[in-house]
Amino acid sequence: MIRLFRFLKPYWFPITLVLILVFAQSLATLYLPTLMADIVDNGIVKKDTGYIERVGLLMLLVSLGAVVAAVISAFFSSRVAVGFGRDIRKKLFAHVQTFSLREFDTFGTASLITRTTNDTNQIQMVLVLMLMMMVSAPMMAIGGIILAISQDATLTWVLVAAIPVLLIAIYLIMSRAIPLSRIMQQKLDRLNLILDEGLTGVRVIRAFDRSAYEEERFNVANSDLTSVATIVNRLTSTMFPLMMLVLNLTTVAILWFGAIRIDAGQLQVGTLIAFLQYAMLILFSFLMLSMMFIMLPRAAAAATRINAVLDIEPAIVDAPETEQRQAGPFDGLLAEPGSVEFEDVTFSYPGAEAPALEHITFRTRPGQVTAIIGGTGAGKSTLINLIPRFYDVDSGRVLVDGKDVREYTQHELRSKIGFVPQTAVLFSGTVSENIRYGKADATDEQVRHAAEVAQASEFINELGDGYDSMVSQGGTNLSGGQKQRLSIARALARQPEIYIFDDSFSALDYKTDAKLRAALKGETANATVLIVAQRVSTVMDADQILVLDEGRLVGVGTHRELLESSPVYREIVFSQLSAEEVAS
How sure is the predictor about 335, in pLDDT bands with cuts at 50, 70 and 90? Predict the structure, then answer.
């Protein structure tokens, strides 16, 4: 957890102010019992009303000062803790944005959400306690012991007997609570994962009538979390009553032995009252420390999990020399802008027994449409994911504009690409905002043009507010075809050098598919277009068709050429088209 305190550097002034105010509050609190003893011994016993008034007024001023210091310190400590939590969340989110898909696969979305929200809140709450107590509690304990001894050293033996009992109890409870708190965070991750799957996959769950099964999964995970949380809460909840028991027994012992010493003339009443208050301050300081110890185990576990994310070095980073590289006078002369080339590329997913792609070599140029076709699991989506560098190749090179993609900054590379994913992803907001996601400064005219080319303008105009109509989270208020067309419009609005369509026409009917492909020809005439498709009708007119089979490139050519030369392509064609359609 200490490692996260580097985020507190911007708050050094308010932290210093809080520590000074807490120190002043502690001094005032420690001074009050001495003033009380003076009032009793020198004012009440001697019936000196003036002395009582003077010391009483001083007590009032000291108390007011302590209250003001407490209020101001609480205000600033809260501001520091909230700002600290904000900075951690900001850093986590920014760092996660640099992750490659490999790191996302390692942590999982549910765990990353938990670490950014729940874990950060745990640390934030502990920081408030630490700022308020890390000076106050030790000072109250040490100062209280010194002042108690100065009041009466003999009665201090009561504290010598009570304090070790408290320390042993705290140790025994925390030694069990800390490891259980770590387990509880893992159980919370599991619960969030099941909840996320249950909400995002609700259509599939209902379609297969698996609601009861999902409820059982959730109940098991919920019960696991509840059982661990119950044990932790039982352990920590014993702390307060145990400390109150020790505190009350200590009070009885002090009064008992103090009364004996007063009766023997060895102690004054005011001194006994002051000693009793110091004893309470000492024990309450240990109570405050125990409260912090209750929070620390979960905060420590949360900090470990946050540091685990921040310590991850993304597998895909910009090359150091790329970040400061300026364009040279010959850049772009040896290759056409927008060209894509694979040179003997091999790629494997982590832990896979066999490569997903093996020895892939091809080239596509601007103004050329390259289609990629193959059976399920052939490696089509994997291939196009290497172009925007979502993954890095194991061997070989992927070239864009004649330059290895690893030599670009990720921003520079991806600014050249308009990517339409296999699963249409939309964001909450208006229709126009979703289209502008591809180009933030796109004009209204550009947005409408992109929608028209994507064959989306008709259904957009039928929506209640047209382009200002709201899209719900994930686009759940739109059909699959409508979501795909908006995803295509988003890529078109960017006007990139390279268009990548990853099976982006699968939810469209044949009529809309044909109209869209016809409109795309004019729009993408000067760009490189790569289309992953399952339908032969979608790829037949492509300038170049790549046929993949089990990660290998088994055919390259036009539709007519592949019908004659590629058995795999011929099998795909005849599985979808009749002999008459093929002949035509």
Answer: low
Distance, CA of 15 to CA of 130 (rounded, Å): 11
Amino acid at the residue 98: T
pTM of structure: 0.69
Other Cβ atoms closer than 10 A to 500? 23
- CA-CA distances (angstroms) from residue 45 to 48, 155, 438? 8, 22, 84
Residue 229, CA atoms < 13 Å, CB-side half-sphere: 10
Q: 25-39, 280-294, 395-409, 504-518 — which one is most confidently predicted on average?
A: 395-409
Q: Which two tokens stand for residue 369?
A: 């449409």
Looking at residue 581, what is its pLDDT?
65
Where do the CATH 1.20.1560.10 domains begin and end in the chain? 2-310
302: Cα within 13 Å, side-chain hemisphere:
25
d(CA 525, CA 520): 8
367 pLDDT above the threshold of 50: yes
CA distance 501 to 380: 11
Is the CB of residue 266 less than 8 Å from the CB of residue 221? no
Range list for CATH 3.40.50.300 in the chain: 333-583
| Total Cβ atoms within 10 A of residue 354 | 9
- Distance between CA 290 and CA 169 in Å, rounded? 10
Bridge-based pairing state of the strands 369-374 and 528-532: parallel
pLDDT of residue 404: 92
Mode of pairing for the β-strands spanning 470-471 and 429-430: antiparallel
What is the full DSSP assignment across 470-489? EE-GGGTTS-HHHHHHHHHH
To the nearest whole number, what is the mean pLDDT of the chain?
85
CA 386/CA 382 separation, integer angstroms:
7
Query: What is the C-alpha to C-alpha distance for residues 194 and 217, in angstroms, rounded to an integer?
Result: 7
- CATH homologous superfamily for the domain 333-583: P-loop containing nucleotide triphosphate hydrolases (3.40.50.300)
Beta bridge pairs of residue 360: 345
**Pairing mode, strands 340-347 and 395-400:** antiparallel
Residues 6+ apart with CB under 8 A from 420: 484, 487, 488, 490, 491, 499, 500, 501, 502, 504
> Which tokens hold the place of 10?
């911007």
What CATH number labels 2-310? 1.20.1560.10
CA 471/CA 436 separation, integer angstroms: 13
CB neighbours of residue 90 within 10 Å: 12
User: Which range has the top average pLDDT, 40-49, 210-219, 505-514?
Assistant: 210-219
